[in-house]
Design brief:
mainly alpha; 66 residues
Length: 66
């Protein structure tokens, strides 16, 4: 039997500018950026998936750059 991965909830306070700039960064960052900073493809995909969850949360809070 495989264990369920542990999940955490993050609460962070950002200024309007910080939230907007982070949303812009997450919109622009590509797989190659994650891959450059990861040990392997699997870690890069995991990093990208986590960043995407933050991007979605920012979008739901009204920070969704086009």
């Amino acid at each position: 039997m495989t264990e369920q991965p542990k999940t955490i909830a993050l609460a962070v306070e950002l200024t309007d500018a910080e939230a907007w700039n982070l949303a812009q960064f997450l919109k622009r960052v590509g797989f190659s950026d994650f891959r450059t900073n990861a040990q392997d493809d699997a870690e890069a995909y995991a990093m990208r998936d986590a960043a995407d969850r933050i991007r979605v949360a920012l979008a739901e809070a009204g920070y969704a750059p086009r």
